[in-house]
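Holo prediction — zinc ion.
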Amino acid sequence: MRYRGTVRVELSRDLTPDDLEDVKKALEEVNRSLTKGFKDPGEGGKVVSWGYTERVLHFEIESRKLRIDEAAMRIKNSLETSLGSRRKIGIRNIRLENALIEIDGEIRINVRLPFVRNIEASNGSTTIYLEALDERDLKKPILLRLLRLLNEKETRAKWGGKAEHWQLIKKSRAKLDVLLYTEDPNKVLEETGLVKRFSIGQWLYTPLATYLLNMLKDVFLQEVVLPLGFVEAIFPKMYPLEIGLKTGHLRGTINSMVFASLPKTYNIEEFEELTDYIYVTNEVPPEEVAKYLRHPEYFLCFAQCEPFYWFFGSELLDDSSLPIKWFDRSGPSFRWESGGIYGLERVIEFHRVEIVWLGKPDQVIEIRNDLLKAYERFMDEVLELEWRTAWVTPWYYEQSGTTEKVEEFDINRPGTIDFELWLPYKGPREEHKAWLEVGNISIHGTKFTEPFRIKHNRGETLWTGCSGFGSQRWLIAFLAQKGFDPEKWPEITREYLNRNPPPEPIVTVTYPKTRAGREELGKLIKFLKR
Ligand code: ATP
Ligand code: ZN
Ligand code: MG
């Protein structure tokens, strides 16, 4: 990123030749102020040339990392100190003119944004020309957000469309020496009628399928979540847009969110035209229904931890209440996954245990570390699975300029660790696509405590963390490695089966659909009820 522009400084009186000599001296101070805070002064700003006409000093400036609005303000402050104190010259006004921002990569940006005059993108770079800005504009948060947006767009362009960098942290030893099971459990679950597709990416889980989902979830709660002292809460599952504004999801993932609208009126009579039409035609044209609805003011549960940050929003917390450790398992999350939808692995409606915590940075890191250890034990010893963990840096956590050095990462900084399990049916261990992300664990730093204004009573920094356990994915991965015969399952799940007898499956005249499916179901029941 490079900035250029002219800062015009309007003075309180005409300058004498003596004054101008002093301006030359002041220039050194100005330049020093423009590199303040940068280890490499080349990253800051500098005055390339300057001039004086009719009570106005003008400076041509350039900068790499110092935002141009900040550069203009620094020039003003620096001159105010030097000329003001030495020569009693006041500053009436400053104005930033002909400012432009050059970005590596061809990015797209809305020309209708405030302060944007024009945009040119060609030959791998983009130039954004800004309107002239006076001092009031320079101090507006909207300008700051525009410049941040441009910075993010540049970072994202450098990532070349990748959503995240992936680096292996640890992997389990190979456990499935002889592959006992290589089938796709998604298919088995559907063919045996344990699940039935309801709509795109949505399934009905019959009692037997629910039993299996709950088995893994219960074991997880008992082995990982409860021993670490997390306590259960129930979070809402439909969020006002405002929440997504604060979490940033509306900026980053709007394409995969599901929205909800309320009716325009509660008065049933006002729906009469529509309901009569539905009555007679026995059809519900969505575009007609839309006329009776308000614009979408909500989105459905996306990350599941959002209400936690909302709850503590604008609160003052003291040491005695920290850290806070909760979890929610009360309902589904919704994601529009478009072409990626597959089986139970990637669905529109899924279930998740969401673990959340809040505390001082040390506390948040310690909790993450305890949780990570417990997860490893859970995968390794409790469920005896083949697993691996990876450090994933979503592009938005990366500071611009450091994207090339991704091989170094500090696990105690904000970031995400993914848990992946091998799906033998998808291919050998060596293949990336044969692994499924079943969950993750994140430290957010102040990503949420800042926008939600979650504060400590003595002003200490507060961080948050969260971890999601996706029930459908854990079940698929478990079955993909262990199969459906409990003889080959780990002890803890066999015990679960003994303690909690599984429910009967559903069999009707035409369900499950195929003969093979029915035979498979018979086998499965023999296993489970042994
Ligand atoms: P992926 O990269 O596979 O899309 P993600 O990074 O979008 O996953 P997160 O946003 O981190 O996933 O969500 C946390 C957890 O929620 C995932 O680890 C997974 O267990 C579950 N999950 C996310 N999306 C889905 C989905 N479409 N279907 C089923 N489970 C999901
Ligand atoms: Zn979360
Ligand atoms: Mg996803």
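READOUT: The first strand starts at residue 2 and ends at 11.
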